[in-house]
Structures are given as C-alpha cells and as structure tokens.
Amino acid sequence: MNNILTMPIISLCDIIEYINDGKRCLKEGEALLNAGHVIGCGVNNQIKTEIVGLCLQTSNLKGAPHSVKIHLQSATPKGWICTCSCKAGAGGKCKHIIACLLYLYRNYLDELSCTDLEQAWGQQKKKFRIENMQPV
Ligand SMILES: [Zn+2]
C-alpha cells in the first residue's frame, strides 16, 4: 500500500487567477491568515483532492467557525470549486476561502478527518481562555 500523501500543490499565480477581480478578498484573506484565524486546515482524508478548513468568524471569534471546502480536482484555477459556510461563501471567493488557499500555499498540509477538525476547534476554544485574540 502506498501511504505517500499526494498533496495538491497550488501556486500563488493560481490563487491570483482564481480570485480574478476580487483583490479585496485577497487582502482580507491574507489578514485573516496572518492573524491566525485559520484553524485545522488540511487534506480531507476521504477525498484527497479536497482541502477542508475552519476559519474563525471575523466579528465573533468565539462563535462556531466558518467551514471552508476547497475542491482542487482541476489543474486549472477555473475548475476549482470552493465553498464556505459564511454569507459570501456561496460565490466561492470569500475572505475565508482565500485565507485557506493562502494557508495551503504556505504550508504542508496533513490529512484530516472530521474528528480532527472538531478537535482543532476544541483546542482553539481552550486558547481563547488563555489568550485574548483580537478581531481583524
Ligand atoms: Zn467565508
């Protein structure tokens, strides 16, 4: 059995091509990522071409995080299918999705299961009690 994870690799150019004219989302997404609001981002252990991630709510950090899904089944950004549970997420280009795309660009991702994501959120909630995170 081959256990080597074939993680999808994306380039910065791909992300910019995907965003197209949504430059504001790029700026906001990067701010979210730099503020540490992306938690538990990884490769779906069931579907290897899917990236799953959680992103804290900008206006309510302690609320249930937004759930981001990025399907990279296509080699070209036009074929990516991204969704987010926030209001703007239906368009596929909200700041949470961009933050996760940038996270993927910058990090080597591990495989995650649904349970791992729940645990990531659980650990984040513990952190809130110790640190005082600021909204972006
Ligand atoms: Zn969103």
Automatic annotation (TrEMBL):
* Keywords carried by this UniProt record: Metal-binding, Zinc, Zinc-finger
Q: MF terms per GO, please?
A: zinc ion binding
Species lineage, top-down? Eukaryota, Metazoa, Ecdysozoa, Arthropoda, Hexapoda
Species of the source: Aquatica leii
Q: Which InterPro entries match?
A: Znf_SWIM (IPR007527)
Protein name as annotated: SWIM-type domain-containing protein
Q: Where do the SWIM-type domain residues begin and end?
A: 66-105
Does the entry feature the keyword Metal-binding, yes or no?
yes
